[in-house]
Specification:
6 helices; alpha+beta
Length: 135
């Protein structure tokens, strides 16, 4: 396994998710709040197939860098995929389930990591959370 910092790994996985048009992506800095990881990446897909595609994209891009997840759960159904990269844990939700489980609220006390501007611009393009509030 390649030796990169947890922040570099979080950026790599964030970029891979955004390349698959992951929606409502946030990176939470949970280092001060839990011992299980330094960062949580939480994002959504508009369908179970998109959720599966995002997960596959993350796995493929990480493998190109010599990084393998310790575990992947939920990839078959595509409703909530959890990918454990040790110091970075990725949660990919089908949007309605993200609202139901509300990890954003559960971990609301954890600060959002400051991402590079290029990432922020992509995240802004792929927002769906506010669409339901305006309908």
């Amino acid at each position: 396994m390649k030796n990169i910092s947890s922040w570099e790994k979080a950026l790599l996985l964030t970029r891979a998710a955004l390349e698959k048009k992951a929606c409502d992506l946030v990176v939470l800095d949970v280092n001060e709040h839990t011992s299980i990881a330094d960062y949580f990446i939480v994002c959504s897909g508009r369908s179970d197939r998109q959720v599966q595609s995002i997960a596959q994209g993350l796995e493929d891009d990480a493998a190109e860098e010599g990084i393998k997840p310790f575990a992947i759960e939920g990839a078959q159904r595509g409703h909530w995929v959890l990918m454990d990269f040790s110091d970075v844990i990725v949660h990919i939700f089908y949007q309605p389930l993200r609202q139901f489980y509300d990890l954003d609220g559960l971990w609301g006390h954890a600060p959002r990591a400051k991402l590079p501007d290029t990432y922020v611009k992509l995240i802004e393009q792929f927002q769906i959370a506010d669409e339901s509030a305006t309908s």
